[in-house]
Amino acid sequence: MTSPFANLFLAIQQRIAAGVASIKHIAHDLGQLSAKSRPPVSWPCVLIDFEDCSFSNLSENVQTAKCTVVLKLGFAPHSPTAQDTPDDYRNTAISYYDIEWELHKALHGWSPEAEEYGSLTRTAATTQRRTDSYRVRELRYLISFDDYSTKHTVQWVPAEMVVVMGI
Predict the structure, then answer these.
(1) Rounded to the nearest 5°, which phi and psi values hold at 31?
(2) Which of 19, 72, 85, 112 pairs as cysteine with 47 (C-beta 3.0–4.6 A)?
(3) Does domain 4-147 have CATH number 3.30.70.1700?
(4) Residues 118-166: pLDDT tens digits?
(5) Nearest to 138 by CA among 126, 123, 120, 130
């Protein structure tokens, strides 16, 4: 892969798979959780996308990118959480908080092994308001990287020097 986005996606996917065992499905966000019928995922799931990328020029056509990595953490319908719900059921219902915490600990401050990437920094965590019974938390991380793909290349051609003696 040559795209920094493809490589970043794969690195994040591998990091989640290795560090958060309770996540059952990790994929690119193609709107799976927007489906009218049952979403085509296994629960809990993480869907990854990149938003709000800004680019600034350094020199020689090199750019620095700053991007928001959006992780949608989805959960199947769960049991009630009211105070009179038996503890076992309530604890199961709110276990998504622990899964979110494990996901955050696996990603915050982590950097893919390639040198051009900075570290992921959490910037927001929100709950999607939905009309169905699925629970979706949206986690946002900021990452930056340098893009050298269009850097100007300079070719040095040795000059030939001729010295003429005499006048």
Answers:
(1) 90, 15
(2) 72
(3) yes
(4) 999 999 999 999 888 889 999 999 999 988 888 877 666 677 777 777 7
(5) 126
